[in-house]
């Protein structure tokens, strides 16, 4: 395992504080509509929840967003009648969440913590989810058991992340998928990215073993693809072409089947 484990939480907190304003400037216009319309869209390719139906009806459900960033998702789910809590490591990202709460008038609890150690009792939530959130940056061997612990039996864990296959084609110092194998498949747990963040992933078999050991049954693994868009050019065009041929993103839909101690 890489030497960034142990320091990754501090590194990611500092780095997310630094890049938060740029991240929100770039991404908020795209995902912000969600906060105002309640219409959520998943992942890199903006696939609407109405097509994927990962959550179903959320009205009245207690929902935790792990790595909420500017809370556009949680705000949208609040608009749909859920009781969200937004959790994030970065205080700057949470300031953006607060700003959105002031704009929309929709308020809900915001918590600063790491997904690896969350301040909630066992069985607190019906849904725990993240769209390229905390599970992309926290140690999976700590964050997935935490998510399972705070879910009620029958609850849903849903999250998206970059696919392991994509990650192993990224050359050192690059932030783009290539067409050759460049990184060790069996050493994906925590690795330093070109953008100064520490990312997390696992080989597919290890994800599955981890879910099983936490009492999480796999309902679905979506490997999403972008639609062909001839209007794109340059880098976006080639990223889009890559992802139409090979898996760029995973969205897991997992159901908690057992209570603690019954695994
Ligand atoms: C790519 S952003 C996604 C934010 C949000 N899901 C969105 O759609 O904009 C990832 C978020 O995960 C947060 N994060 C990173 N490591 C975390 C950890 N260990 N625990 C909680 N949040 C974390 C970052 O601060 C950041 O806000």
UniProtKB/TrEMBL annotation:
It comes from Pseudofrankia asymbiotica. GO terms for biological process: methylation. Gene3D superfamilies: Vaccinia Virus protein VP39 (3.40.50.150). InterPro entries: Methyltransf_11 (IPR013216), SAM-dependent_MTases_sf (IPR029063). This is Methyltransferase type 11. Keywords: Methyltransferase, Transferase. GO terms for molecular function: S-adenosylmethionine-dependent methyltransferase activity. It holds the Pfam family Methyltransf_11. Residues 64-159 form the Methyltransferase type domain.
């Amino acid at each position: 395992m890489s030497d960034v484990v142990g320091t990754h939480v501090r590194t990611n907190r500092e780095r997310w504080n630094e890049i938060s304003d740029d991240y929100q400037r770039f991404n908020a216009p795209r995902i912000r509509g969600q906060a105002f319309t309640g219409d959520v869209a998943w992942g890199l390719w903006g696939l609407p929840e109405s097509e994927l139906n990962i959550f179903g009806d959320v009205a009245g459900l207690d929902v935790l967003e792990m790595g909420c960033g500017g809370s556009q998702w949680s705000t949208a789910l609040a608009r749909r009648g859920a009781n969200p809590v937004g959790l994030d490591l970065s205080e700057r990202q949470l300031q953006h969440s607060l700003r959105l709460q002031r704009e929309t008038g929709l308020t809900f609890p915001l918590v600063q913590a790491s997904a690896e150690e969350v301040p909630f009792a066992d069985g607190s939530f019906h849904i725990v989810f993240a769209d390229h959130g905390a599970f992309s940056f926290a140690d999976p061997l700590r964050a997935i058991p935490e998510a399972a612990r705070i879910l009620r039996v029958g609850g849903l864990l849903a999250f998206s992340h970059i696919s392991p296959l994509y990650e192993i084609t990224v050359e050192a110092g690059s932030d783009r998928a290539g067409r050759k194998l460049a990184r060790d498949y069996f050493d994906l747990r925590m690795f330093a990215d070109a953008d100064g963040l520490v990312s997390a992933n696992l080989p597919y078999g290890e994800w599955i073993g981890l879910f099983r050991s936490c009492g999480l049954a796999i309902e679905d693994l979506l490997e999403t693809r972008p639609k062909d868009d001839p209007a794109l050019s340059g880098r976006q065009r080639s990223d889009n072409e890559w992802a139409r041929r090979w898996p760029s993103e995973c969205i897991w839909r997992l159901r908690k089947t057992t209570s603690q101690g019954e695994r």
